[in-house]
Design a protein that fits this description.
It is a multi-pass membrane protein. This protein is mainly alpha-helical. Helices cover 63% and strands 1% of the residues. The relative contact order is 0.09.
Length: 329
C-alpha cells in the first residue's frame, strides 16, 4: 500500500511546467489511480480480529487453560519437611529391621542350599519382608517430598492405603475368629515345639514364653514327647527330658542355667515331676495373657494406624501443592 501512495504522489507532484496536452494525458491517469480502493486501518484491524478468532482457545487465553500454580506458603514448606522427616524415620527403622533379618538368616545359615526348605518357617524372614516393604515405601515418600515428585507421592499414598487396609482387615478377621484363636495358637506352638532344636529363634521364643508364664509344653509337660530329641526312644542324652526353661529352678548355684535340670523327667510320675518342672501347658496361660493385654494391643494398633494416617495426610498435602489438578491426575 505504501509504494502505491508514493507512486501517486510522484505523479501528482508538479515537477515542471507542462503543456496543456501533456497535462490532459496525466489527469486521467491520476483520476484512475485515485479511484482504486485503498485498504484502511480499520480493515486491517478487522482482519486481525478475524484471524484471531481462528486461533485455538488455549492460544487466545493461555492463563485460563494453563494456570500458574500458586507459590507454596510457609505452612506448605513446613508440611513438606515434616513429611520428609517422617518418612526418613520409618526408612531407618525399615533398614534396621531388614539388617536384623538378613543378619539372622546369615548367622544361622538359613540361606544355604540344604536349609532353604526351612526358610519359610524362619521368623527372621518376617523381619526381612517387613523391612523391605517399609524401606521401599518410606524411600518413595522421602524422595517424593524432597524432589516434589507427584509420581512417587502417588505410589506412597497407594502403598500406605494398602497397608492400612490390610491391617484393618486383619484386625477384623482376628475379632471375628477370636474363638478359633486358641486352635491357631496351639498349632503355632506345636510348630515351635517340633522345630525347637533346629531353629534358634524358635528355641529362644519358647524358652522365654515358658519362663515368663511358668508353663511347659502345649497342654502339659508331656507334650515334649512329640519332639524327636526329647522322646524317650531318642538315642541322645536329652531322651525323656524337657527344656531347662520348664524347670521350677533352672539356675544352678543361683547364677548359671542348669541345662540338665529336667533330665529324665518324662520317666517320672506327675507327683514326682511336679517337684521338678511346671506341669501346666502354655496354651491356656498364653491365651489368658493375650486377653489381659487386649487393651494394650488395641492401643498399639491404633497408634500405628494414626502414624500411618499422619504420613498419608502430609503426603496428600504436598501432592496437592505440586499437582493442583488432582491427587490422582
Amino acid at each position: 500500500m505504501a509504494p502505491l501512495r508514493e507512486r501517486l504522489s510522484r505523479l501528482l507532484r508538479p515537477r515542471r511546467a507542462v503543456g496543456s496536452g501533456e497535462s490532459s494525458r496525466l489527469l486521467p491517469q491520476a483520476s484512475r489511480l485515485a479511484e482504486l480502493p485503498y485498504p484502511s486501518d480499520d480493515d486491517n484491524d478487522e482482519g486481525l480480529l478475524v484471524e484471531d478468532t481462528h486461533l485455538p482457545a488455549a492460544e487466545q487465553h493461555p492463563e485460563e487453560w494453563c494456570p500458574v500454580p500458586p507459590k507454596p506458603g510457609a505452612f506448605s514448606h513446613c508440611v513438606r519437611y515434616l513429611a520428609f522427616l517422617w518418612n526418613l524415620l520409618f526408612l531407618l527403622l525399615g533398614l534396621l529391621a531388614l539388617g536384623v533379618g538378613v543378619w539372622g538368616l546369615l548367622a544361622k545359615g538359613s540361606l544355604q542350599h540344604e536349609r532353604l526348605a526351612l526358610l519359610g518357617s524362619d521368623p527372621m524372614l518376617l523381619f526381612v519382608l517387613a523391612g523391605l516393604g517399609a524401606s521401599a515405601v518410606s524411600l518413595a515418600g522421602c524422595l517424593g517430598a524432597l524432589r516434589s515428585s507427584a509420581c512417587l507421592l502417588r505410589f506412597f499414598v497407594g502403598a500406605v492405603l494398602a497397608f492400612v487396609g490390610l491391617e484393618v482387615l486383619g484386625g477384623l478377621l482376628l475379632f471375628a475368629a477370636r474363638r478359633r484363636l486358641r486352635d491357631a495358637l496351639r498349632a503355632a506352638l506345636l510348630l515351635c515345639l517340633l522345630h525347637y532344636q533346629q531353629e534358634p529363634d524358635l528355641r529362644l521364643l519358647v524358652d522365654e514364653v515358658q519362663r515368663a508364664l511358668s508353663c511347659c509344653g502345649l497342654g502339659s509337660y508331656r507334650d515334649w514327647e512329640s519332639n524327636p530329641y526329647f522322646n524317650c526312644s531318642a538315642p541322645g542324652v536329652q531322651a525323656c527330658s524337657v527344656p531347662a526353661s520348664c524347670c521350677l529352678d533352672p539356675l544352678q548355684n543361683g547364677s548359671v542355667t542348669n541345662d540338665q535340670c529336667a533330665l529324665g523327667v518324662l520317666r517320672l510320675g506327675d507327683m514326682e515331676a511336679a517337684g521338678v518342672v511346671h506341669l501346666g501347658g502354655c496354651v491356656v496361660q498364653l491365651g489368658a495373657w493375650l486377653r489381659g493385654q487386649a487393651g494394650s494391643i488395641a492401643t498399639g494398633a491404633a497408634v500405628l494406624v494414626l502414624l500411618e494416617a499422619a504420613g498419608l495426610l502430609m503426603a496428600l498435602k504436598v501432592l496437592a501443592d505440586i499437582a493442583p489438578g488432582g491427587v490422582w491426575g
